Amino acid sequence: MGLYTALRLQRKLKPELQRGDVEIVVVSPDPYMTYQPFLPEATAGNISPRHVVVPLRRVLTECRLLVGEAQSIDHAKRVATVATLATQETGRTEQITYDELVLAPGSVSRTLPIPGLADHGIGFKTVEEAIGLRNHVIEQMDIASSTRDPAIRDAALTFVFVGGGYAGVEALGELEDMARFAARYYHNVKRDDMKWILVEATNRILPEVGEEMGKYAVTELRRRNIDVRMETRLESCADRIAVLSDGSRFPNRTVVWTAGVKPHPILAATDLPLNEHGRLKCTPQLTVDGATHAWAAGDAAAVPDLTAKEPGKETAPNAQHAVRQAKLLGDNIAHALRGEELETYAHKYVGSVASLGLHKGVAHIYGRKLKGYPAWFMHRAYHLSRVPTFNRKARVLAEWTLAGLFKREIVSLGSLEHPRAEFELAAGGKPSRDPKGSS
């Protein structure tokens, strides 16, 4: 959400920036912002990966961008220690002094000490992971097509997704859709040969869309022969065998982990107050409670929900709140610098939308429930309106239009993940790529 805040500040502080009275420094581990709701579509090949990301240098023209990661923040001294791309070469970190601090680092994947997960699990938080997963799935179909060994074929065509939230359900829905389409071009791989398994520890999936739409989503996935296992946990994936808490065992080569997120580690490396969940304690004005000149928004911020009936409730850490908080945060920083009164964040949650694959979805918006094509269309329309910059909106819309006129691509470019492997082999070295195609 740092991009949204910086864009707002660029606009609100334009006179001060032109006079040189203000400098906005953006610290980011990547020179781009990933619009995560589009990751499932990028995985399925509906959107080009480069259109899922927004280049920071191009849109934040009035800001100074520093590509690196904050290692610690001493707010009492107003100093942030940042490891840049050059730190590995020089061994030196950057010490950045500031007057106002904005923390919007988002969240990271929450993993559990499950045997084999660190070795074989695949995450779904970045565009690199999304495209790597697409290449991996198509590669498994190629492996199955090239052998008659039933054990190898079965393992290659078994795909296990852990987590029934947005990321897990949408990634599974889009990838299954893509793989089912791709299977028609394989002479010895049929769509019924593939096993798609969704593992969820609670008794429902997609809780944000409501119980009724969550049940519909389960019915829709099962209608497509997707094995949805509720109140079930992954206990091990060692030796490439997924062992579930209900006693089931699935030899496989693909375990996708989307079972929740946790606060970014940088929050624990500050001297700012955190709540019991590790998020920053914030006020309705998006200032950090008890700390002057410190602000936060998005997943990192525990912001009181002023629209809730229950006292003490906080806004949910989702994109709907984060985007709106970022805009208000930019406004309030400008107000603070000019000695003006701060605005209060109060937004009633309007509902949620989720895609289950091409032309399939569920939605619960303003009390109205949609499913199938109308929900899928609502999902696309909403996220198209939220992706930053007109440039990205136009490119995504153009790609959707072309995708409606032509068949989707089913090419795997797995070699992109190991670009030097071919040259290393030609030069007599050992190729870095695993010849078995494991991830």
Q: Would you give an account of this structure?
A:
This protein is an alpha/beta fold. It has two domains: 147 residues, FAD/NAD(P)-binding domain; 198 residues, FAD/NAD(P)-binding domain, CATH 3.50.50. Helix content is 33%, strand content 21%. The protein has a five-stranded parallel β-sheet. The radius of gyration is 23 Å and the shape is globular. It comes from Streptomyces avermitilis (strain ATCC 31267 / DSM 46492 / JCM 5070 / NBRC 14893 / NCIMB 12804 / NRRL 8165 / MA-4680).
Task: Chart the SSEs and their pairings.
Elements: H1 2-12, H2 14-19, E1 25-28, E2 32-34, H3 39-44, E3 53-55, H4 56-59, E4 64-74, E5 79-84, H5 87-90, E6 94-97, E7 101-103, E8 107-109, H6 117-120, E9 121-122, H7 127-145, H8 150-156, E10 158-162, H9 166-182, E11 195-199, H10 211-223, E12 226-229, E13 234-236, E14 241-244, E15 249-251, E16 254-257, E17 261-263, E18 280-281, E19 294-296, E20 301-302, H11 319-337, E21 351-357, E22 360-365, E23 368-371, H12 373-386, H13 390-405, H14 421-426
